[in-house]
Amino acid sequence: MPQYTLNTRRLLCPLPVIRTQDRVKQLQAGDVLEVVGTDPGIMQDIPAWCRINGHKVLETMSGGHEYTIVLEVGG
Fold this sequence. Notes:
4-stranded mixed sheet, Translation Initiation Factor IF3
């Protein structure tokens, strides 16, 4: 299962979600995408987007001023 990283640092809502959506469209079901950002809103926005669109959140992390969400692309 390929893993990719998306840098959304210094972007504010709704751009991190839009960039995540655009990147997921380029991936295959089962691929893993790590989204890294500095907007704390992504910790709620991206998991909500995943639930609506059939993707699975594998992990969320925060440290310093960065937030990371690891998701698996759904089918």
